[in-house]
Specification:
CATH topology of the largest domain: Aspartate Aminotransferase, domain 2
Largest sheet: 8 strands, mixed
Number of helices: 14
Number of strands: 14
Number of domains: 2
Distance between the termini: 14 Å
CATH class of the largest domain: Alpha Beta
Length: about 375
């Protein structure tokens, strides 16, 4: 069978579902209500941001939350609220989005890039243990691709060394670890509402935490150094305006009512892809991390055999109408980070992932016909030869 890249007929001609999906009636109604009210800003007297924060905190199993303009700012504010700053180090995984590290730099601290587990690609507790120094102030596990990191051993390490834990839950809305929601398992957790995420307002983020004093410091950081309940022009500490708008919150609040159904659809697609991949021995799905009780499947990672030409695979799959994503380069290979002082630990597992892992994006997981098309295209491409 001739590959599409060589002039053959593509496996799939049908467009994939768009993301974000069209507004549902509840979103349209609430957004219209906010627009017509004129109360668009978070400090103008509207209630939608507050309702969103309350609902997300409760869903995360904690009492407190703060909505912010994006998750990068959320990670920064969480670190600030936990007292992390100049002279401190924060351990982050090597296989993650660059914002996990740049948020640390924004807080004035040094990112320490540690390796991931070679099987599930989440932050390795063993690598964290080896990376801890006298300057370490926090650990930032990332709930990669919608599955939870190994929170119990990471929290144990943090407790033993007196470290804070900030969960980067940007990709993991609705995921659970040992039946406990992510985001509420460390000292603070941060979600993203950027355009590609499982819930989106184009941009946005939300910080959750269980401790009242941490919440007050995070809130102050996000509200120009004001004291919660204090004077409008009182600024006892340094802070910034990092707030989410009522319009963005109106897009997000109704989404919570359908989030679980969408997670179920993505999980069903991932299970179907794993079954279909029986015909493609060169491709496997990394195992879910131990302790995963609900994977929100923001995306599906696929590992290809080391002998596969990954660049040809990506190009040929796109030609077949089934585009895959190349995924992350290891953070330790980014000169911009090391130029800012990032400390890089040995990261062979992350480097191997960068050579052998590709992604199926979230919108593709929302199509019931997707699994068969993905497996058929993989089988076709991997049986063909580059020209």
């Amino acid at each position: 069978m001739t590959l599409a890249i060589h002039g053959g007929t593509p496996v799939r001609a049908t467009p994939w579902p768009s993301w974000p999906p069209p507004l549902d009636p509840a979103q349209r109604e609430l957004v219209t209500k906010v627009l017509e009210s004129g109360l668009w800003g978070a400090t103008q007297g509207g209630s939608v941001v507050a309702d969103l924060v309350d609902a997300f905190a409760r869903r995360s199993g904690v009492q407190y939350g703060v909505a912010v303009g994006n998750a990068t700012l959320g990670l920064f504010a969480a670190l600030r609220g936990l007292g992390v700053g100049r002279g401190d180090e924060v351990i982050v995984p090597a296989y993650t989005f660059v914002a996990s590290a740049t948020a640390v730099l924004l807080a004035g601290a040094t990112p320490v890039i540690a390796d991931v587990d070679p099987a599930d690609l989440h932050l390795s507790p063993d690598a964290v243990r080896a990376a801890i120094s006298g300057r370490t102030a926090a650990i930032m596990p990332v709930h990669l691709a919608g599955s939870p990191a190994a929170m119990d051993p990471l929290n144990d390490l943090a407790a033993r060394h007196g470290l804070a834990v900030v969960e980067d839950a940007a990709q993991a809305h609705g995921a659970t670890y040992k039946d406990r929601p992510v985001g509420g398992l460390g000292d603070a957790g941060v979600y993203s509402f950027q355009a590609s995420k499982a819930m989106t307002a184009g941009e946005g983020g939300l910080i959750v935490c269980r401790d009242e004093s941490v919440h007050e410091r995070v809130w102050s950081t996000c509200n120009l150094g004001r004291k919660l309940g204090g004077q409008w022009y009182g600024h006892p500490s340094v802070g910034w305006n990092l707030r989410l708008t009522e319009i963005q919150a109106a897009l997000l609040l109704p989404w919570l009512d359908r989030l679980d159904e969408e997670i179920d659809r993505r999980n069903a697609s991932c299970a179907a892809i794993e079954r279909e991949l029986a015909i493609v021995p060169e491709v496997s799905v990394p195992p879910r991390p131990d302790g995963t009780t609900r994977d929100s499947r923001h995306l599906l990672m696929l590992r290809v055999d080391p002998g596969v030409d990954r660049e040809f695979l990506l190009t040929a799959m796109a030609a077949e109408g089934v585009p895959l994503d190349a995924g992350y380069p290891p953070l330790g290979t980014m000169n911009a980070l090391t130029a800012e002082g990032a400390r890089v630990e040995p990261c062979p597992a992350a480097e191997e992932a960068a050579r052998t892992v590709v992604w199926v994006r979230q919108s593709m997981l929302m199509d019931p016909a997707g699994p068969a098309d993905i497996a058929e295209a993989l089988a076709k491409v991997l049986s063909g030869k580059p020209a």
